[in-house]
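Q: What residues go here?
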């Protein structure tokens, strides 16, 4: 029950962020990706996600406003590891060639739920 509530709280925060972003930019340019984390760069707070659907790699930037959940629990950037399956919702930043993550939801490879 606590896990469900924390997920709902994180989702509510992200929806608030989306509303703010859509109003500020006047567009709805969010992107959703799923895949496997293939690289993690702690210095730049980015990771590379190998997308399952497009068979390409996308660099994802994590910021202070990014919500991260690992196996349903609130987490931080340092909890991200190569090999984890992840879903990301973010806003493309073509100028810096990254996807700015709003929400990162991660499951360990052994977690088949």
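A:
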């Amino acid at each position: 029950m606590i896990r469900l509530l924390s997920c709902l709280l994180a989702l509510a925060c992200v929806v608030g962020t989306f509303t703010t972003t859509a109003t500020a930019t006047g567009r709805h340019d969010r992107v959703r990706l799923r895949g496997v984390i293939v690289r993690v760069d702690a210095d730049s707070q980015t990771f590379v996600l190998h997308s399952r659907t497009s068979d390409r790699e996308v660099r994802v930037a994590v910021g202070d406003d990014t919500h991260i959940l690992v196996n349903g629990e609130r987490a931080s950037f340092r909890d991200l590891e190569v090999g984890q399956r992840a879903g990301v919702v973010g806003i493309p930043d073509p100028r810096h060639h990254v996807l700015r993550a709003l929400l990162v939801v991660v499951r360990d490879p052994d977690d088949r739920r």
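A: Context that may help when evaluating the design: Helices lie at 2-25. Residues 2-107 form a domain with the OB fold (Dihydrolipoamide Acetyltransferase, E2P) fold (CATH 2.40.50.320).
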